[in-house]
């Protein structure tokens, strides 16, 4: 089956199975993340109490760890949920929001990578660079670097950890160290709403819950969300109505939309070692 048809099949399966996606995410984006998952056809749960996260993670199809609003109890909850999920072979998606901004965020993200070994890591260029380079400075969730600048770092992280690494921006790059996908989808309005990166991570998680290859699932999640952004922007020029329209588009997107967008998808084998 081609990559395009795997993407189409992945979205269909999400809508048929309604996988449970456990989110330990920042409280700024909980509502829009839950609505994203519902619109896709998945079932969201937001649970961060240390007393229940291991049990919840074990029941889930995928787990999202988002470090956007950290506190000591939430950090403990992330490690507990991450270990519980990985022990059962459940995919873990790490969103290192603001890595490189503060020591707490950067070191927490690095520890999660070392100890939990997430299945997928999704970040903007600056966040991905900060995971390996202590000199990288970011400004919360804003990227000061280009996707191209982070490409080789993403590949090295993938090779070192076994994770699929997605660097998101005007063109998204996804790599597992041996394959790289280049995805051009989305719209500038996605940068003018709160939580678009977190919504992407949740979309990837929904696909990881039903697609056994995390590389394909990550490519699928990015393409689906990007196409939904384009569909939403076609109907409105303003960020407020764009957010509402984006949720509608995630519900509306169909096989034909994905096949049309996938014509610009490029997947390459990495020929030389990093």
Describe the structure.
With 274 residues, the chain is an alpha/beta fold. It has a single domain, classed as UDP-N-acetylmuramoyl-L-alanine:D-glutamate ligase. Helix content is 50%, strand content 15%. It has helices at 3-17, 30-40, 53-59, 72-87, 103-116, 125-130, 147-161, 196-208, 214-233, 239-252, 255-261; strands spanning 20-24, 43-46, 62-66, 92-95, 120-124, 164-168, 172-175, 179-183, 266-269. Strands 2-1-3-4-5-6-7-8-9 form a 9-stranded mixed β-sheet, sandwiched between helices. β3, α4 and β4 (92-95) form a beta-alpha-beta unit. α1 (3-17) packs across α9 (214-233) and α3 packs parallel to α4 (72-87). The longest helix is centred in the last third of the chain and has 20 residues, at 214-233. The radius of gyration is 17 Å and the shape is globular.
Sequence-ordered SSE layout with sheet pairings:
Blueprint: H1 3-17, E1 20-24, H2 30-40, E2 43-46, H3 53-59, E3 62-66, H4 72-87, E4 92-95, H5 103-116, E5 120-124, H6 125-130, H7 147-161, E6 164-168, E7 172-175, E8 179-183, H8 196-208, H9 214-233, H10 239-252, H11 255-261, E9 266-269
Parallel strand pairs: 1-2, 1-3, 3-4, 4-5, 5-6
Antiparallel strand pairs: 6-7, 7-8, 8-9
């Amino acid at each position: 089956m081609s990559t395009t048809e795997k993407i189409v099949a992945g979205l269909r399966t999400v809508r048929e199975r309604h996988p449970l996606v456990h989110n330990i995410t920042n409280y700024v984006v909980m509502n829009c993340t839950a609505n994203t998952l519902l619109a896709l056809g998945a079932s969201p749960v937001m649970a961060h109490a240390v007393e229940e996260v291991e049990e919840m993670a074990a029941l889930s199809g995928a787990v999202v760890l988002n470090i956007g609003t950290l506190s000591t109890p939430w950090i403990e909850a992330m490690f507990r949920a991450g270990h519980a999920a990985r022990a059962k072979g459940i995919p873990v998606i790490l969103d290192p929001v603001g890595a490189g901004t503060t020591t707490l965020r950067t070191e927490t993200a690095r520890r999660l990578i070392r100890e939990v070994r997430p299945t997928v890591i999704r970040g903007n260029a600056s966040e991905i660079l900060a995971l390996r380079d202590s000199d990288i400075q970011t400004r919360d969730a804003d990227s000061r670097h280009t996707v191209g600048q982070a490409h080789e770092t993403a590949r090295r992280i993938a090779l070192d950890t076994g994770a699929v690494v997605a660097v998101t921006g005007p063109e998204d790059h996804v790599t597992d160290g041996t394959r790289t996908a280049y995805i051009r989808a989305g719209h500038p309005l996605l940068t003018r709403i709160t939580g678009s990166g977190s919504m992407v991570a949740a979309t990837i998680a929904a696909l990881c819950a039903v697609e056994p290859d995390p590389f394909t699932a990550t490519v699928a999640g990015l393409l689906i969300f990007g196409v939904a952004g384009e569909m939403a922007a076609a109907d409105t020029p303003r960020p407020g109505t764009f957010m509402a329209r984006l949720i509608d588009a995630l519900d509306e997107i169909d096989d034909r939309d994905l096949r049309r967008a996938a014509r610009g998808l490029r997947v390459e084998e990495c020929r030389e070692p990093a």
